[in-house]
Amino acid sequence: MKVQDVSGKSFFKAIMILLALIIFLPPSPLRAQTETSSTPTWTQISSTPTSTETPTTPTTTETLTTTTPTSTKTTTPSSNNGLFPDIVGHPAEQAIRHLWVRGLISGFPDGTFRPDDFLTRAEFAKLLILSLGAQTLTPTLPSFSDVLPSYWAFPYIEAGRHLGIRPFFLFQGFPDGTFRPKAYITIAEALTLIARSKGWEDALRTTTPSSPFEDVPINHWAFQEIYSCLAYGVVQSDKVFPDDPLPRGQAALYFFRAIDQPAIKSIYISLSEQRLYALEGARIVYEFPTLTGKQGWPTPTGIFYVLEKVEAVDMQGGLGMEEYYVPGVPWVLFFISRVYAIHGNYWKPERYFGNDPTFTGSHGCVGLIPDQARLLYDWTSVGTKIIITWDYLRYSPGE
Q1: Distance set, CA 60 to CA 37, 74, 110, 216, 253 (Å)
Q2: Distance from CA of residue 170 to its chain's centroid?
Q3: For 41-45, 221-225, 348-352, which range has the lowest pLDDT when averaged over its residues?
Q4: 3 state DSSP class of 45
Q5: Measured between alpha carbons, how far is residue 157 from residues 69, 135, 141, 219, 301 in Å?
């Protein structure tokens, strides 16, 4: 019995030693590697993106791309990625995120957007020019006495002052020659500039006897422009508060709804300049030299519309005084019956175009260099407005 007791105790001690070794052994290298790989370092970077400080240049995207290709998904802001924490739950949140992704807006140095703060006229000018994709301007002589070349918004304000041609210069300023860039822009002013930049206010002229708005009567100075913005979905309420300052978040909503809406096409022809301007809203798409009516055969002036498009047609006329016959006149846009048109002119040297047509011009039609006539023909649709005038339309530096 005594021998058996000793062997039992020895067996028990062996079991205890074996259990201690199993419990206190360090983890295997394979197990440690698995735990480390389950928490990759890039998740820590994406949880606190540096782009909240300068959203227009999100360095976070570059960092994540170099770590793992799948992390490029963070280029589209989401409600939990830290972009503008003060917009979460705001009615304009998605509009603000959309404009930020397109590079049109940025926040403040502290990472906020402040959607309920009001927008200044200078800030609106920058947003409008960026949304139109227009080039900035830095003329030597400023257009407004209170916006000097050293001012941060000078290139944007000058661009809006001279955007397009004279009928579409957007920023007119005040009678005293100022622009007041630090003043808050009103809702009526903002909607007017959006409508004019798209050419909507003229295309949707109405003589409606009543206003669809509670607070914008038909005799309000901006009624037509605000009405146009309603028709295009930029305004979505019957109460506009036209004379109130525009909050930053509401401005984002307006631009979000307007930016991809089509601009109205129009053609302007200056007989004094011998120049044709094709516009989408206030933005010049094409600018071509013309050859118009010569002495005794004037080109008519006024407002017309493209009535018919013909790729090629034989033209003849002269009314017994100067008979002519021209076969295969290309890229024809008729605007008065089948008598007057804008068309390609292949029978006159290119050096004639853009100069005084008194003795070398047409019999009243507007001639273009054929390649340019083709571009205009493809761009234009039936119904496009044509305005022919003796006014000078081109912007001259220093005006």
Answers
A1: 21, 8, 17, 45, 26
A2: 15
A3: 41-45
A4: helix
A5: 40, 11, 13, 29, 32
CATH architecture of 265-389: Beta Barrel (2.40)
State the CB neighbour count (10 A cutoff) for residue 228. Answer: 27
Indicate whether 143 pLDDT > 60. yes
Q: What is the pLDDT of residues 252-261, one digit of tens each?
A: 999 999 999 9
> How far is it, in rounded angstroms, from Cα 110 to Cα 17?
61
Contact 128, 197 (CB under 8 A): yes
Among the ranges given (71-85, 143-157, 301-315, 368-382), the one the predictor scored with the smallest mean pLDDT = 71-85
In degrees and rounded to multiples of 5, residue 309 shows phi and psi of -115, 130
In this prediction, residue 207 has a pLDDT band, given cuts at 50, 70 and 90, of: low
Domain boundaries, the chain: 121-258, 265-389
Both tokens assigned to 289: 């030299």
pTM: 0.74
Q: What is the pLDDT of residue 399?
A: 53
Which residue in 351, 386, 395 sits closest to 366, CA to CA? 386
Judge whether 162 and 226 are in contact, CB under 8 Å.
no
| CB-CB contact of 163 with 283 (8 Å) | yes
255 and 193 in contact (C-beta within 8 Å)? no
| String of DSSP letters for 295-360 | TTSPPP-EEEE--EEEEEEEEEE-TTTS-EEEEEEEEEEEEETTTEEEEE--SS-GGGTTS--TTT
307-340: burial string, b at 16+ Cβ within 10 Å, e else: bebeeebebebeeeeeeeeeeebbbbbbbeeeeb
